Amino acid sequence: MSELIQIVDSLENKISKLLHRLEVLDKANRTLEDELNHIKSNQVNAQKTVSEWEEKYNSLKLANSMLGSNTNKTEAKLKINTLIRELDYCIAQLSE
């Protein structure tokens, strides 16, 4: 009978340790999920910032080429032609 009590005590002890370990792992998991969400948020913000700077850079490049910079004249002409085509398309859509 005492052997059975020892087995039950041993099982209770192991279950208690497993439950404690589960709590610790759940807490660690929640911490990692919070950290992941924070990092994802930072990544989205960084991507938005990069996108804004790329747009500003392209606008500046286009403005420089329109001011007479020889390095980007063909690019400026292509951009102007694209804008003209878009305007023509819009005008055609409005006249229908």
What can you see in these coordinates?
Keywords: Coiled coil. By secondary structure, this protein is mainly α. The chain has one domain. 92% of the residues lie in helices and 0% in strands. It has 2 helices and no strands.
The total beta strand count reads: 0
Helix content: over 70%
Element-by-element helix/strand order: HH
How many domain regions?
Answer: 1
Summarize the biggest pleated sheet.
Answer: none
Based on CA atoms alone, the radius of gyration comes out at 33 Å
Descriptors:
coiled coil, Mis12-Mtw1 protein family, mainly alpha, 96 residues
Structural topology:
Elements: H1 2-66, H2 73-95
Task: Briefly characterize the structure.
With 96 residues, the protein is mainly alpha-helical. Helices cover 92% and strands 0% of the residues. The model has no long low-confidence stretch (mean pLDDT 89).
